[in-house]
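[INFO] parsing input record for Srpk
[DEBUG] input buffer:
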Amino acid sequence: MMLPSILDRFTLNGLNGNHACYVTAPVSASLSDLKDGSWIRLFQPDVARSLAAQLMLALDYVHAQGIVHGDMYLGNILLKVPLNFDQLSPERLHEKYGAPELEPVSRLNGKPLPPGVPTHGVPPIWLGKASEEIVLLETRILLADFGEAFILFILSKERKFESCTPLVIRPPEARFEPNEPLSFSSDIWTLTCTIWTIIGQRQLLEGFLATEDDMTCEHVCQDTLSILPLDWWEKWDALRQKFDGDGEPRNRKSFRSWDDRFEDSVQQPRQDSGISPFNEKEEALFNVLRLMLSFRPANRPTTNQILKSEWMVKLALPEYRKSQNNI
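[DEBUG] output buffer:
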């Protein structure tokens, strides 16, 4: 199962009211944490393929239930703990991962703590490792955080128009079609960006402290997506500031082709780190990723169609099955 299950639930009664609590199985870290724990921020090729396949299978199941996730990025993709984790004694757990550390709690003004406030806090334990150290056997994921998810029935009884996905991977229709409800295709856009980040060192679309205009320019200024649909161009107030009358970017330095991004984010970092680069067979991945990044939501493939794509069938899914057979 690639979705979290609730093992127990209880209500915590405290000074600030009653809080519903849910218990789930522990995880080692998110994929974002694993990259943050690495200097090179890369997964091994077989690991990256297995992670992408599992993410695709998880999202396909979610969509089949009529649910749009709405907030899919590396921080919400969790890696399960090792298979023998539940058999570790407390002593062995502390030996392997470190004993709990107590951090005193104090007030800035030096006055005594109010009633009900604990005297110490316990920082969370780090169960992960550097991304490049993850091996195929350990690639067991959970797609988590359904706080932004919404359900689509046949007649769209429940609709959602605002995307809370991080701006850098937010689908463009959230901006240019604000009166149209988001649907499964919005997940496909963020899935594309997430798969790229799994196989590469950096994100496909980059925008540190970016605005909506910056990200729209990032969408257009690469050979992958080309120009916006005409009606979207006409809605873009900042168009004349970013492009000339012929549709060419005023700042040519902002133009980075798909090949440039692949070389800078995937191939060169892998070669520099002594990790096998992706070979010519990976071209099949880019063929389907380009379709998944169609501006028009209706033109993006479904999860089922993506699972039948050449890259999934010949490369990604076999790696996932190999990891399951080893288990």
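[INFO] The mean pLDDT is 85.
[INFO] shutting down worker
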